[in-house]
Amino acid sequence: MCDFLFSRKLRGQGHLSKLISGIYSESPPEVFEFHGQWGSLAVSRNLYTGFDPYETGRHIMVVLGGPVLRFCDNSFLVGTDKIAGTKAVYERWIAEGKIKWDSDLSGPFAILLIDKDSGEVTVVTDLLAFVHIFSYIRDDELILSSHIDIGAKAAGKQTDLDMVSVTNFIIDSVVTYPYAFYRNFRQVEPGAVLKWQKGSDKQMTEVYWRPREENIYSSIDEAADAIRAGLKEYIDTVTRSMEKIGLFLSGGEDSRLVLAMLPGHKPRDAFIFLDGENKEGKIAKKAADFYGAKLNMFARTPTYYLDILQQCSELIGAGSQYEHVHAYQFYKSLNDYSAVFGGYLSDTLLKGDEIEISCILEKFPFLPEIRGENKYCKAVHCPLFKDEILEEILERKIAHYNFVKQFRPESADEWVKIWPIKMCFANAQYNGHSRLFRCYEPFTANDVVKVSASVPQSWKLNRRLFRAAAKPALEKSKWLRHSDGRLPYFPWYINMPFGFAGWFYDITRRKLHLDKIYQGPWYDSEKLMASQRAKELESQYDAQLKYLARQITKNADGGPLKYVTNHTQRRNWLQAAYNIHSLEKSGTNTAADV
């Protein structure tokens, strides 16, 4: 992916480019600049071949992400023409007037079009805004940016933090739509064409797609066929002209499905990042062998997910959890691949991961899933944070919930955490990785998103929909267990005893401290946050933590972290503190000025 930064006010040469380059800790990409009576624009080179900016006598067009173009051949992905893809979209949209945004482009994208004659600026977002765009309209200025921090810096508002959003992020790991980390910045709507005319602060919005609650399938099998066809088309289109294909592989079923659907006649290199040779890695190795891929394991340091805090926080911007950029320290090994596939969002879109289920399942995950009470709009009672901030967070969440309920009356509890996708705490995975290498996520394909929006929640629970779609591809490895003990090929009722055995085995080993290294794909959060590295970071950002505490807590004595026992929230505190520290590095001194 690339980034863009647009300002309606004319900026000096190199000013906007410097802001874009600043999000990279090393090897920043080349940045193009454009200037005119319409304003200034900086765009970094797109990692996805064929999608560099395209300029005509009248227009400048930018494509972010690496969308699959369903109306033309995609061989330019491995070609030498740096603008072929952008030009193809431009001609279908502007020259031919035939573009259908919800079907012609598949996967993550955002498009910026500047009319140099009229000064009109247009932004097009994908179905769920996988590529995040932020807007700022104030004092005759329009700022549009794909990265919240550089947009704030361009507007000179990097110290104008929205403390309600900051607290929202610390508690929930997301910032409620449409707000952002900085005041007067807003997240741009998904599935829409948005326009701003020169001399006007009015935003004109044309919605081309919303995930409306309309089931068009007569059965789970029919919906599963549509998912399978959508995945196959997306994967086949991307890989058709490619010779070197990479993918992330784990001990789970999502990446195994993607591996099974990759073209078997082409070499496939699989990658896994672990604390060491554990159970997860052994299962991944067996899956790679079943489907003829070569597995490459990279060992992480014990404090890896704290070591990448600074670099990944800069890369993805404030308000998104940095830790989901899993491959950061290993990305150079992936740069040689024309495509690196992942299993991002399969759980969210196909298995109902965001559906509220009975709380007993949190303790006993081998039990069948039952829909539970909607807790999204419940007030948060926390003695640490100021009451007025918690009340405002609740008001924002209720407003977002009520808006989503207009088009998802029966399943707003699920889609309030999916639409837009920045409401999903793992949203940084694509936005981080796609800035580092050519990352493709098949479950973001338009057909998959549309099926997810169309089917009843009951079809997603207990993996019914996912299993129906994945079963043919998983037949070859039907007896290979998931890392949690289940057999992904089989239905939930057969898997109950296997799931119980796996759960009991894992919890017993943890209780008896029998494992020398963590056995899962992530990390032991309790051990990580009790490490010396965590203490060092807390000490390093002590001034920023205390500044935040003065703004959002009732009692800041001794700093806030002594009151925080939730490990995820503890990391979010640290990340927010680093965001403020980064502002100080850029020439402001928030903690000292307040």
Task: Sum up the overall morphology in one term.
Answer: globular
Number of helices: 24
Kindly estimate the percentage of residues that lie in beta strands according to DSSP. Answer: 5-15%
The low-confidence runs, each spanning 5 or more residues with pLDDT under 50, are: 588-594
Overall strand count: 19
**Average predicted local confidence, pLDDT:** 91
Specify the biggest β-sheet. 6 strands, antiparallel
The oligomerization state is single chain
- Main sheet: which strands, in order across? 2-3-1-11-10-12
As a whole number of angstroms, the C-alpha radius of gyration is: 23 Å
Describe the structure.
This protein has 24 helices and 19 strands. The C terminus is likely disordered. Helix 5 crosses helix 13. It is globular and about 70 Å long. With 594 residues, it is of the alpha+beta class. The strands form four sheets. The protein has a six-stranded antiparallel sheet, with helices on one face. A six-stranded antiparallel sheet has the order 4-5-8-9-13-14, with helices on one face.
Identify the notable features of this structure and list them briefly.
594 residues, 6-stranded antiparallel sheet, single chain, 14% strand, globular, 24 helices
